[in-house]
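seq as requested:
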Amino acid sequence: MASALARGWGDPVLVYDAYRPRAEALVEQLGGEVVASNAELAQRADAVLLAHKPAGLERVAAELGGAAKGVISILGGVPLAALRAAYGATPVVRMIPSVPVEVRQGVTCHARDAQDTSSELEAEAIALFQRVGLVVSLDEAQMDVATGLMSCAPAYVALVAEAQVDAGVRAGLPADVAGELVAANIGGTAALLQARGMDTLAVRRAVTSPGGITARGLAALERGGVRAAFDDAMQAVLAR
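struct tokens:
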């Protein structure tokens, strides 16, 4: 996700990664510098973007050593309270982006900070993430559901697209043609839904003639349990 954000922003990066070749590849692509440690990163950066595994929260905070001027976290499942406990008086902001930030069409959920409603870092973080897509501010109690809905969604959409392409191939289309049709249609349908205020019923009715092929296809999807499958996915995410 950090690489996707960096590519979306397109700016030179100041980066530390425990796996140095990954950091070097990013710098080679975007420019910037690989630093020798998290401590050096904290000393030199205007703010540190945390993109490590959540389990490493306390270890990385210790490595930064209280030198960070501000911390922006994209760690899944790590609330503001845990960030504050790890970073003390250092300003912290919590953001959860989706991977299409790489092409500047991502969605980022921002956790409102009830304890710090006028943070300069928070305003800067929101503006930064707006460069790579939509930013939606939420009460932190809603962040887990929002994460299950939007952060996981690119994988779900990719799976649905893959299934459609496979169905097209089984019916006789070349894979590249099926892929082009499906990808373009997903993008176009998303734009149409946004233009119509997310009126999903209106879009479905615009496509579905009584007794027609779309009606038959939708009935087959309902029999296959598509709605229940997405609800089960959400419950699995929340249980984790």
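The mean pLDDT is 95.
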